[in-house]
Specification:
Structural class of chain B: alpha+beta
Low-confidence stretches of chain A: 184-189
Distance between the termini of chain A: 81 Å
Strand content of chain B: 5-15%
Mean pLDDT of chain A: 83
Shape of chain B: elongated
CATH superfamily of chain A: LemA-like domain
Structural class of chain A: mainly alpha
Number of helices of chain B: 21
CATH class of chain A: Mainly Alpha
Low-confidence stretches of chain B: 322-328, 385-396, 451-472
Strand content of chain A: under 5%
Largest sheet of chain A: none
Number of domains of chain A: 1
Oligomer: heterodimer
Mean pLDDT of chain B: 73
Order of helices and strands of chain A: HHHHHHH
Largest interface: A-B, 33 and 36 residues
Strand order of the largest sheet of chain B: 4-9-10-11-17-16-15-12
Chain lengths: ~190, ~650
């Protein structure tokens, strides 16, 4: 009788321990997944800020760059495109934003040829804001990738993979440099 | 090693607990040793002729078999808890010790720094960071953190002026590395502890002096009369006081050195780790290497801050003499909180895959090219719609085209036109219309552009007076009388300038920033003017007289000059013509009350040119020239 009691107790203890372990693992996964979501939201905030800055940039640049209508129009068009892509269509959005980055880069490259524009006080500040926003986007992606890698590794590793499978934790996609960006990476020396 | 916010938090809690224990231990041991020594000395002093073993036995008995020991322990614990709690305030204390101030939103360089902090916040996922700026002129940066988790990252004005955006980002990344690895708390804590020992050292020194003074006065008293017996007991008492003071002094000195060595041991490793983390955060090892190289080349020891322990908080210890920052012998580096900077550079360069020598050559070449390619225009008028990050472009107002340099420019709003310094006979036309006229024929524009306008707009659309930091007040040009000074950007510094005569109103702190930054180049006229002034200095050095400067005031100070007392308006202060400094005889106007300086057109550029040339001649940096000016605004020869 005593033995049966002992076995029963042991069984009960094992169950309790298992539940506690699974709950702990589940909570840690939820925590990680929320951080990945937060990191993604960070990117969104910065993209939105870039959309807000561009009309001002074009407005200032227009004063000095009447002969570069094409470049300016390309920027405006790219911005409109990026805004109009629906938020759910991730792939399209990434594509549109990348295109916007490209047009901006070419705008700044052209602006180099206009010393008056470069010396414009508003342009100087706008340029700094945009550089900062571009950096923030890059850093936000970097942070997102770091967090996502952590999360992805965790749900693939034993024994988390079992729990992740049980509660349907999906792998999250990583940001990858697109073809255009890859081409532009160059070493300075 | 992975660093994310949760781990940092957990690790920080562990650190903090460990530190508390360490602190208690440090206090307890320190107190026991001091008490032991004090008792010992006192016993020997009062009981002349007692044998050492008996004294030791007595002291042991007093300390460990009576309540005294318990009391000492209690005092140590209480004091450690108090200083623990107080060290929470050390952040404010430290920042105020460095004379740090928050960045000015209108300063372009400061804004860039704030942006970089924001970027690094995103890159690291840590949010509560406050940016601060230190007035020092050499390149440095620091970080500290209290137990509430508030972090302060500060850089010097010198770093803002001399580092590129990427380099500054790498430096901030390094400071962030300290935060992420959690060692800022330790360093901040240690500097708090050290200040207690410094205080103890002072007390000991005071006792020693008091005791010695007593001995001296006793001796002189004895010389005067011979009542030795009466004063004998007092004599030994005084001697004991001096001895106790000496003992307290020596022990606290030794103890603080021991602690200091402990800091140096820990913090040297940390610098390497923070460098590595900076690369992880910013992913730009080349910029970090370049920043370190610039720090190395511009390094000099600062004597502004007396508490040496805070040196560990900086990216490169500001108290280390040049010799130590590059030397690597064991004895030399024993007391250095930072590893030799050359070692750090070579490690970072190794990661970046470049050779330090090549990088250094490249930096020198780049700086040379940059100085040659400087633009000639310094003053950029901002208009009044400019406000930090909110770029609202007004579209409702009328726009005008202006005939300038044989072409139609524009369109501009009236307010923009007002900042361009156009003469009244300039041709203008409305945007989109053909017929043109002159400004003076158009009453609306005359209102908007010239004196009359200023008073019409009295509602305060234009906010001036950034310079003196007073309440918003309209400031008129002292030369042109009824033209409002407008906000303008000069090398990133917000100044008040006249759109008509291009005079600039500045205070000394902002002038120093402008002299540090090297954005503006100089036209040949400016160069000639400066060289002529230099030759004047030479002549006057041979006792020639320079034409005396008028003693009567030039004009009423535009900022603090007029005050209203009821209905009556009174003049309070005037600006006087002054020579900027003996070796820089640029004639500027300085207010006798608020010290603001008025530069007429070109005078600021000449001063900059002369500073840079002087620095080049003497082979030192501009800030050293600035620091060697004995007095600004002397009335020379007058």
């Amino acid at each position: 009788m005593a033995i049966l009691m002992g076995v029963f107790l042991l069984f009960l203890l094992t169950i309790v321990a298992l539940v506690v372990l699974v709950a702990g693992a589940y909570n840690s996964l939820v925590q990680l997944r929320n951080r990945v979501k937060n990191a993604w939201a960070q990117i969104d905030v910065q993209l939105k800020r870039r959309h807000d800055l561009i009309p001002n940039l074009v407005e200032v640049a227009k004063k000095y760059m009447q002969h570069e209508r094409e470049t300016l129009e390309a920027v405006i068009k790219a911005r409109t495109q990026a805004i109009n892509v629906s938020a759910d269509n991730l792939e399209e959005r990434v594509k549109a934003e990348n295109f916007l980055s490209q047009t901006l880069r070419s705008l700044f490259a052209v602006a180099e040829r206009y010393p008056n524009l470069k010396a414009d006080a508003q342009m100087m500040r706008l340029h700094e804001e945009l550089v900062s926003t571009e950096n923030k986007i890059a850093f936000a992606r970097q942070f997102y990738n770091d967090e996502t890698t952590l999360y992805n590794t965790k749900i693939e590793m034993f024994p988390m993979n079992i729990i992740a499978g049980m509660f349907n934790f999906q792998k999250m996609p990583l940001f990858e440099a697109d073809e255009e960006e890859r081409k532009e990476v160059k070493i300075e020396f | 090693m992975r660093f994310n916010f949760l781990e940092i938090k957990r690790k920080k809690d562990r650190y903090v607990f460990l530190l508390l224990l360490l602190l208690m231990l440090s206090y307890t041991v320190g107190f026991f040793v001091t008490t032991y020594a004090v008792l010992f000395v006192a016993r020997i002093g009062f009981m002349s002729g007692a044998s050492f073993p008996s004294v030791i036995r007595w002291v042991n008995h007093q300390l460990f078999h009576t309540r005294l020991g318990l009391q000492v322990l209690l005092a140590a614990v209480v004091l450690s808890l108090v200083s623990w709690l107080l060290s929470g305030f050390s952040l404010r204390h430290i920042v105020s010790m460095f004379k740090g101030y928050p960045p000015e939103p209108d300063d372009r360089y400061h804004k860039q720094f704030v942006n970089i902090i924001d970027e690094v916040k995103i890159a690291s996922g840590i949010k509560n960071i406050e940016p601060r700026i230190l007035p020092d002129t050499d390149i440095n940066a620091f970080t500290c953190q209290d137990f509430s988790g508030k972090i302060v990252i500060g850089v010097t004005e010198g770093a803002l002026a001399k580092l590129t955006r990427h380099e500054l980002e790498a430096v901030v990344g390094h400071e962030m590395g300290h935060v992420m690895s959690g060692d800022v708390v330790t360093t901040t804590m240690f500097s708090a502890i050290m200040s207690v020992y410094a205080a103890m050292k002072e007390v000991g020194l005071g006792m020693l002096k008091l005791g010695l003074a007593g001995v001296y006065s006793y001796r002189s008293a004895r010389d005067r009369d011979s009542r030795v017996n009466i004063r004998a007991s007092r004599s030994s008492g005084i001697n004991v006081l001096a001895l106790i003071g000496l003992v307290v002094f020596i022990i606290s000195l030794l103890w603080s050195y021991l602690n200091y060595m402990l800091i140096t041991l820990i913090s040297r490793q940390r610098e390497y780790r923070a460098d590595a983390l900076a690369i992880k955060i910013v992913r730009d090892p080349i910029s970090l290497a370049r920043a370190l190289l610039k720090i190395k080349n511009g390094h000099k020891s600062v004597k502004l801050i007396t508490d040496k322990t805070v040196g560990a908080l900086f990216i490169s210890n500001p108290f280390t003499p040049e010799r130590l920052s590059s030397g690597s012998s064991l004895a030399e580096s024993l007391f250095n909180t930072h590893p030799p900077i050359t070692d750090r550079i070579s490690i970072v360069c190794n990661i970046a895959g470049v050779s330090p020598d090549e990088l250094e050559r490249q930096i020198i070449a780049e700086e040379k090219a940059k100085i040659e390619a400087r633009s000639k225009t310094g003053l950029i008028f901002l208009g009044d719609k400019e406000d930090g990050a909110d770029f609202q472009v007004d579209s409702g107002a009328d726009r005008w085209m202006v005939f300038l340099d044989s072409a139609w420019r524009g369109p501009f709003t009236v307010k923009e036109l007002a900042t361009m310094g156009l003469p009244p006979d300039t041709f203008i036309k409305r945007e989109g219309e053909e017929g043109h006229s002159m400004i003076q024929d158009n009453p609306e524009l005359m209102m908007g552009l010239f004196g009359v306008s200023a008073r019409v707009e009295d509602a305060g659309a234009q906010d001036g007076d950034e310079v003196s930091g007073n309440a918003k007040k309209q400031v008129y040009c002292p030369r042109c009388r009824d033209v409002l000074l407008s906000r303008a950007d000069y090398e990133g510094v917000l100044v008040l300038a006249c759109p008509n005569c291009f005079g600039v109103l500045l205070d000394r702190d902002h002038l120093k920033k402008i002299l540090l930054r090297k954005e503006v180049g100089f036209s040949d006229d400016i160069r000639q003017w400066g060289d002529k002034l230099f030759s004047m200095v030479e002549i006057s050095g041979k006792r020639y007289e320079i034409a005396p400067i008028k003693r009567e005031p030039s004009f009423v100070c535009p900022v603090c000059g007029d005050r209203k007392f009821g209905a009556k308006q009174e003049t309070i202060s005037m600006m006087y013509k002054r020579v900027f400094a003996k070796k820089f005889p640029v004639q500027v106007d300085i207010c006798g009350l608020c010290g603001l300086i008025w530069f007429d057109k070109g005078e600021l550029e000449v001063l900059q040119y002369m500073f840079e040339k002087k620095a080049e001649e003497m082979g030192v940096s501009v800030e050293e020239v600035w620091n060697n000016i004995p007095e600004i605004g002397i009335s020379w020869g007058g």
